[in-house]
Amino acid sequence: MRPLLQNAHRHMNTTIRWGVLGAAAIAIGRTMPAIRQAPSATLLALASRDAAKGRQVAAEFGIAHLHASYEALLADPEVDAVYVPLPNQLHFEWSMRALQAGKHVLCEKPLCISAEQIAQLCAERDRSGKHIEEGFAFRNHPQWAQLAQIMASGTIGEVRAVHCTLAKQFLDPADVRNQLQAGGGALYDMGSYAISACNMVFQCQPRRVVAAMDRDPVFGTDRLTSALLDYGERHATLTVGTQSGSNAWGTHQQFEVLGSQGWLRMNFAFAHARPSHCQIEVGDSSSVGAFPTATYAFEPVNHYLLQVERFSQLLLGHPVAHWPIEDAQRTLQTIEALFTSARQDQWQTLP
């Protein structure tokens, strides 16, 4: 995490005024309700290229400023921060344009579809002095702070390996996950969670990676990707699939950390489509099999609400956690190396 913003947002308002680019399903279902509920946020503006849908959503959420174009919203002087829930291939363009318009940016994951695009966003962030983050709501869930405390306590010893699985049935051809040119596929979508989490645990990116990949014969996207990430004497394995596991409302998720003296596992580590109970199970040096010696239970929390509130508080000058987009750049470098590995059938070394 970077030091607290030097140019924290300080104006007469007591909340950050948000604008949303497009009425995407994740915006309507999760983030816009979160903006309405967050004490430090105001849902002020919406831009929709579909006039009828825009009017409907604006009326539903009580949005004061409805714009017919994304450009018009970025020109709105009352908007402080912009949320970008557009299809993956549009993230870079509209995040860049928002920064150039003097807005702070929260953009859905993956932030971009190439590491070079993120490098350009880093440069514009530094030039503009505005804050930009990748929208990983899971990082705001208290279970991840608890995981960090468990690892720091030495209960499981030194981290040796991480194992991660995410899967769900995404079969609709219209789903962006099934559109190759839009940055679809399991690795961009679910792999970004897995790689980001592995890097959080190890506090660095892998040295080299190797992947096996199966592509859908019609969509052309990777529907099953497995990878081995070598962090130097420490390893991570991941499997992500868009045509595997359950077809329920939430993805199948497993996240395990193996230590030199124990282990821990999370049963709902990442995106909660609905606020849900979850837990971390911990096995120390005395545990047998997969039976935990301690369990940390968490009540349902809306981590989209936690994300919006934390982001807004940051802009208001409060000392809260935040994550630089250099993290996203490292994730994209790993994703690009994994695609190359699968294509060339060999290990790839990262920068």
Description:
With 351 residues, the protein is α/β, with parallel strands linked by helices. The chain has two domains: 16-138, Rossmann fold (3-Layer(aba) Sandwich); 142-300 and 332-349, 2-Layer Sandwich (Dihydrodipicolinate Reductase, domain 2). It is 32% helix and 25% strand. The protein is built from nine helices and 15 strands. It has helices at residues 25-37, 51-61, 70-74, 91-100, 115-128, 142-153, 186-202, 303-315, 326-344; strands spanning 16-21, 41-47, 65-67, 81-84, 104-108, 132-135, 159-167, 208-215, 222-230, 235-241, 252-259, 263-266, 278-283, 294-298, 348-349. The strands form two sheets. The protein has a nine-stranded mixed β-sheet. A hairpin with a 3-residue loop joins β11 (252-259) and β12. α1 crosses α8 (303-315), α4 (91-100) runs parallel beside α5 and α5 (115-128) packs antiparallel against α9 (326-344). The longest helix is centred in the C-terminal third of the chain and has 19 residues, at 326-344. It is globular and about 60 Å long. The two termini are 21 Å apart. The model has no long low-confidence stretch (mean pLDDT 95).
